[in-house]
UniProtKB/TrEMBL annotation:
Membrane-traversing stretches: none
Annotated PANTHER family: 3-OXOACYL-(ACYL-CARRIER-PROTEIN) REDUCTASE, 3-OXOACYL-[ACYL-CARRIER-PROTEIN] REDUCTASE FABG
Native source species: Candidatus Sediminicultor quintus
GO biological process: monocarboxylic acid metabolic process
Family membership noted in the UniProt record: Belongs to the short-chain dehydrogenases/reductases (SDR) family.
Coiled-coil region list: none
Protein name, per record: Short-chain dehydrogenase
Length: 249
């Protein structure tokens, strides 16, 4: 098992990609803290991991609140003694053409997707520096590097994650903490369904993926395990795109 005796936090771990990362890392031996605003789904994932013999803890967390992110890390340490990995995966999406994108949409998305991720990096970095080891994995998106109609505010958030990743990586190098970003392509989750409610958009997106289909949640897990494990110990400040070839054409 690649993550034996490791302790991991997955923000937004209650459903979709975060659920797949939580279950997948637990299967590899990690004790997993599922940090999410959604209590019901979060407890379900916690139960599923425990029922399969793994270790898990749900911690209700709104990543946009700094105090919540600090409490999340403290609860992880209280329960499991240390923190080796954090997957900053919590995210929200509202779609609108540029002229209809409101200040409120912009602020809400930035509060969770950018400021929340930054608070989580800060809270994790504090303990990882003391331990002199750690892995921070920031979930960006292919939206950070290519234009998609309706996603101006969301893409701006996901773009902001790239310099955050590099600067944390640079500042934390001397404490043996690696910080990398994963850019998933469109993956079959609740979030993608929201964006793809318009059938024209769905057709357009699917046609633009060389592999001809959306990603499945477990197809992103391998990249997370690479960044979470010793396999990536000489890799920091980098981005990995997993998108069925979307960004190569
Ligand atoms: N699905 C895709 O096509 C896709 C593509 C690229 C990147 N991503 C990114 O991957 C991540 C997961 O996406 P998903 O498709 O699984 O989304 P999802 O909507 O299925 O799940 C998101 C999770 O985040 C939680 N969450 C929302 N706001 C939160 C907050 N303030 N604090 C804590 N938790 C919060 C939700 O409760 C939910 O459990 C997101 O960051 C998303 O931007 C998704």
């Amino acid at each position: 098992m690649r993550l034996e005796n490791k302790v991991a936090i997955v923000t937004g771990g209650a459903q979709g990609l975060g659920e797949a990362y939580s279950i997948g890392m637990a299967r590899e031996g990690a004790s997993v803290v599922i940090a999410d605003v959604d209590e019901l789904s979060g407890h379900k994932v916690e139960g599923q991991i425990r029922n399969s013999g793994g270790k898990a803890l749900f911690v209700k967390t709104d990543v946009s609140r700094k105090a919540d992110t600090e409490a999340m890390v403290q609860k992880a340490i209280k329960e499991f003694d240390r923190l080796d990995i954090i997957v900053n995966n919590a995210g929200i999406l509202f779609t609108a053409p540029v002229e209809d994108t409101t200040g409120e949409m912009w602020d809400k998305m930035f509060a969770v997707n950018v400021k929340g991720l930054f608070f989580c990096c800060q809270a994790a970095a504090k303990v990882m520096k003391k331990q002199k080891s750690g892995k921070i994995i920031n979930i960006s998106s292919i939206a950070a590097i290519g234009a998609q109609a309706g996603l101006c505010a969301y893409s701006s958030c996901k773009g902001a994650i790239l310099p955050i990743t590099r600067v944390f990586a640079l500042e934390l190098c001397k404490w043996n903490v690696q910080v990398n970003a994963l850019l998933p392509g469109t993956t079959d989750t609740g979030m993608a369904k929201l964006a793809m409610a318009d059938p024209n958009w769905t057709r357009q997106v699917t046609q633009s993926i060389p592999m001809g289909r959306l990603g499945m949640t477990d197809e992103l897990l391998g990249a997370v395990l690479y960044f979470a494990s010793d396999d990536s110990k000489y890799c920091t400040g980098q981005t990995l795109i997993v998108d069925g070839g979307y960004s190569m054409v």
